[in-house]
Queue: 2 jobs
Job 1
Amino acid sequence: MTEIKKILLGIDGSDGSYKAAGYAADLAARVGATVTLMFVVSDQYTDRFIAKPTYTPNEEIMVGSRFNRAKAIMEEKHVAYDTVVEMGNPAQKLIATGDSGYDMIVLGTRGLSAVKEFMLGSVSSKVVQHSRIPVLIVP
Ligand SMILES: Nc1ncnc2c1ncn2[C@@H]1O[C@H](COP(=O)(O)OP(=O)(O)OP(=O)(O)O)[C@@H](O)[C@H]1O
Ligand SMILES: [Mg+2]
């Protein structure tokens, strides 16, 4: 039987990702799964604003605060969670991590981008198209 024990949740600090967090927490509480909150610091961002691939104290604060709301959501529903930060291409990192032993990836429809011309953001659409494990997109 299919079991959902490990859920990978993409958090970028957007309202869409926190909505996904709410759904992931409800699902995890119901089936007894754990949730990994993952934020990928994208290459693009690093190049543009930091100009070196290092993990600065400032960025750590930025990353930490991004997780705060999602952590609170997990705690409210008594869901066990951990956090992961990686640097690279967000879709690729989410797909590779998902493939390393997770049962499902949960993402929001949209993220931080101001451009809303497409139904799905580029990260969610790439993950849906290339993931080898099931992906749940929360509208
Ligand atoms: N850097 C990231 N790290 C972790 N999860 C992410 C990241 N970026 C996006 N996600 C996940 O993917 C969902 C959709 O975001 P996406 O980036 O695809 O849309 P967008 O920002 O509106 O558009 P785009 O980035 O393509 O301009 C988010 O709600 C979040 O769950
Ligand atoms: Mg985005």
Note: The beta strands are 6-10, 34-42, 81-88, 104-108, 135-138.
Job 2
Amino acid sequence: MHEISLVQGLLKQLALLAAEHGSKSVSKVRLEVGPHSGIVIDSFKFGFEVLAAEIDLTRHARLEIVIPPLRYKCCYCGHVRQTERLPETCSQCAKTLLVPDGGDGLILLQVEME
Ligand SMILES: [Zn+2]
């Protein structure tokens, strides 16, 4: 599962942050998961629950996931539109070639440590 390796990467990042700040425990982790990232949120949450529980540092960490709205960009005029699903045509130039705009990453927004 792709999500497991992402969780492992996140836990490594948290361990580094905690070491930098001399913290012993992470209480909250806030992540932004792009709607175009292909990450299955439920699998990611499950992976986090299982793996974080095995480490003292993250045993009590709460995971909060924020999903920003979908955005699509027109390949012709560059117009970006925020929308629920892929629009059929650009609202500016009425062309039909639209691609996802950003939203394909996993961003660590906030970490609370004790
Ligand atoms: Zn356009």
Note: The domain at 2-68+103-113 is CATH 3.30.2320.50 (hypothetical protein PF0899 fold).
